[in-house]
Each structure stands twice: as structure tokens, then as C-alpha cells.
């Protein structure tokens, strides 16, 4: 039995050492990452039984990708070996006033060659408690979108919960196209984990000017946004919204909110974040949410675990959060000050 199965594209990540720009680089550090893979790697590290579904080429790069996933305990038995190439992305890490930037080289990657029958969705999803994917996967190609829809329908029929993160990427599609596609997926979603901006811009939840202070939603605005989202999609069992404020590429604040067991909207504490590597932080947040749901934590505890995992990811190089369950328990006991453990 898998507690979480995810479906998406995992890519080779190439980054100049430190904070060099790509134009300066004479070498690149190698890693692997992709939103859905990042989530199951983080979960596997904290004791959740996970599986990952994708397509990878039958070559040494595909082998290395599978070895990466296995290293952290993710089940890879449903990965299909097919296709011509592994997608690549180049990450230039930002610092101070210079933002991080990404260059994709993922056209014609293996996952886009997926065809009906490549993945036995019924077999894997009848053994899965939560199926997770994101809007990134929905944006890749029509072939991938067709399989994602099939997976969502199969998960519902098999009794698995469907968790989804909108995860909008402007380099993959427009807001209008994202709205068109994701609106068709939303009726299958049980657990929505996303952020304020994607709710407003992709799901078209309009907010009046009175609910803003500058570009940020007010406290009342956040509650109204939540209620309007819940009214529009009444099938959602759980909604968890995150909000990030960037002071610079090196300093952010992050918090989240949801409804508690009494139907009241509750907020996490606001975490001040020192950024070493921002990529995958939202995925670490999602992992914290899914971990908390699976372990039956209260909503207030879930928010603290998820925001802590997000904050911690900013301090870890690579796409995936490498963390232990003991560290998560320290966060629950509020022992997450950063003091050295001796």
C-alpha cells in the first residue's frame, strides 16, 4: 500500500556553482528535480511510503534518475522506460536584489511520449491512499494531460484521495489556458494545496480593491478569498493556501491558512526565511500538508509542520527537502530555533 503516489516530470538540474551566473559558468552542479518528485522524496524521508510515476529514457541518465529516487526510498516500479531524452533545466540562483531564474530544455522529453496503456493506473491507484500531481504536469502536452485526467478519474473510482497544486508556470502556458484546463480537473480534486496568487489568477477568483494593502491581501481579504474558493468548488474537502512575501531574493516571509476542525479559518505563524536554495520550497510545504493529513494532525499542527518544512527547504541545496521525522517533531514541539543540537 502506498500512502502517496505522484505523477509528473523529473528533470536533470544543472546549476552554476554558488551564485554564479550562467554566462560565468565553466561547470555545473548536477541534481534532479520536479514538483511531484520533490514531494515524494521529502515524504519518503519522513517515513511515508511513496511511489512515483513518470517516463524516463532507457539510457544512463534515466538510470541515474531512478537511482536518485531509490536513494531516498521512493518506489520506482511503475516508472515506464520509454522516450528519447530526459528533460533538463538550468537554474541560476538569485541573491539580494537579483532574482533566481530558470532556463528550460525539456521539449520532446520522455514523458511527452506517454500513450494510453503505458501506465496501469488501476493497479497502482487501488493501492494508493493519496494521488498527487500539479498544474505543471497538466501544462506539458496533450498526451500528458490526457493521462493526468485518466489518473484523476481512476483515483476517484479506486477510492484514493486526489491532491493537487495549481503550481502555475508562465514559461509553460498562459493564465487563460491554465484556467481552461485546471477548471476541468478541479471537480476531481479533494485536497487543494496552492497559493493566493494562483487562486486569483488561474481559478479567476476576483477580489475587490478594498481587500488589498498595496499588492498584498489584507487579513479580511484572505478570509474572503478562502470562502469564495470554497463556494466555487464545494467538492473540496481540504483547502490549504500559502502566502509568500519577498523582501529580496535572500529574505522572504511565508505563512499559510486553512479551516480548522470547527470550521474557522486559522493561520500559521509567519516565518522569516533565509534563502540558500528556493527551488522546491512549495513542494516541501505540500509534503508537510500530506504528511499531516496522513498522520491525523490537527489543522493548526498541519500548518506549523508544512510552513516549517517549507522554511527548512530554503536552507537545503537541490530541489528536494532532505529532512528527518525527528526534525518535524521538533517543529511540533516548537524546538526549531536553529540552535545547534549537541
From TrEMBL:
UniProt KW keywords: Kinase, Transferase
InterPro entries, per database record: Carb_kinase_PfkB-like (IPR052700), PfkB_dom (IPR011611), Ribokinase-like (IPR029056)
Any single Pfam family the record assigns to this protein: PfkB
GO-annotated molecular function: kinase activity
Domain Carbohydrate kinase PfkB as annotated: residue spans: 2-320
Domain of life per record: Bacteria
Similarity remark: Belongs to the carbohydrate kinase PfkB family.
Protein's name according to its UniProt entry: PfkB domain protein
UniProt source species: Caldicellulosiruptor saccharolyticus (strain ATCC 43494 / DSM 8903 / Tp8T 6331)
Amino acid at each position: 500500500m502506498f500512502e502517496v503516489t505522484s505523477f509528473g516530470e523529473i528533470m536533470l538540474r544543472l546549476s552554476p556553482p554558488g551564485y554564479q551566473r550562467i554566462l560565468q559558468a565553466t561547470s555545473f552542479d548536477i541534481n534532479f528535480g520536479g514538483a511531484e518528485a520533490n514531494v515524494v522524496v521529502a515524504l519518503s524521508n519522513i517515513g511515508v511510503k511513496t511511489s512515483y510515476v513518470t517516463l524516463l529514457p532507457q539510457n544512463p541518465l534515466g538510470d541515474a534518475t531512478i537511482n536518485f529516487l531509490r536513494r531516498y526510498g521512493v518506489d520506482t516500479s511503475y516508472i515506464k522506460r520509454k522516450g528519447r531524452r530526459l528533460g533538463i533545466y538550468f537554474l541560476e540562483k538569485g541573491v539580494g536584489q537579483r532574482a533566481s531564474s530558470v532556463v528550460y530544455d525539456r521539449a520532446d522529453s520522455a514523458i511527452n511520449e506517454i500513450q494510453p496503456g503505458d501506465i496501469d493506473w488501476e493497479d497502482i491507484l487501488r493501492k494508493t491512499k493519496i494521488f498527487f500531481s500539479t498544474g505543471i504536469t497538466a501544462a506539458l502536452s496533450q498526451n500528458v494531460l490526457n493521462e493526468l485526467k485518466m489518473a484523476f478519474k481512476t483515483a476517484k473510482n479506486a477510492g484514493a484521495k486526489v491532491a493537487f497544486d495549481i503550481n502555475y508556470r508562465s514559461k509553460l502556458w498562459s493564465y487563460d489556458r491554465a484556467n481552461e484546463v485546471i477548471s476541468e480537473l478541479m471537480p476531481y480534486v479533494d485536497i487543494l494545496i496552492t497559493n493566493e496568487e494562483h487562486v486569483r489568477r488561474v481559478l479567476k477568483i476576483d477580489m475587490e480593491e478594498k481587500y488589498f494593502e498595496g499588492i498584498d491581501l489584507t487579513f479580511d481579504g484572505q478570509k474572503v478569498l478562502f470562502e469564495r474558493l470554497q463556494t466555487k468548488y464545494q467538492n473540496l474537502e481540504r483547502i490549504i493556501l500559502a502566502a509568500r512575501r519577498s523582501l529580496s531574493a535572500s529574505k522572504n516571509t511565508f505563512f499559510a491558512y486553512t479551516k480548522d476542525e470547527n470550521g474557522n479559518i486559522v493561520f500559521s505563524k509567519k516565518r522569516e526565511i533565509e534563502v540558500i536554495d528556493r527551488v522546491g520550497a512549495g513542494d516541501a510545504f505540500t509534503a508537510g500538508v500530506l504528511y499531516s493529513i496522513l498522520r491525523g494532525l490537527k489543522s493548526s499542527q498541519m500548518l506549523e509542520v508544512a510552513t516549517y518544512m517549507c522554511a527548512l527547504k530554503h536552507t537545503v541545496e537541490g530541489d528536494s527537502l532532505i529532512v528527518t521525522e525527528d526534525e518535524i517533531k521538533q517543529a511540533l514541539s516548537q524546538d526549531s530555533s536553529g540552535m545547534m543540537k549537541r
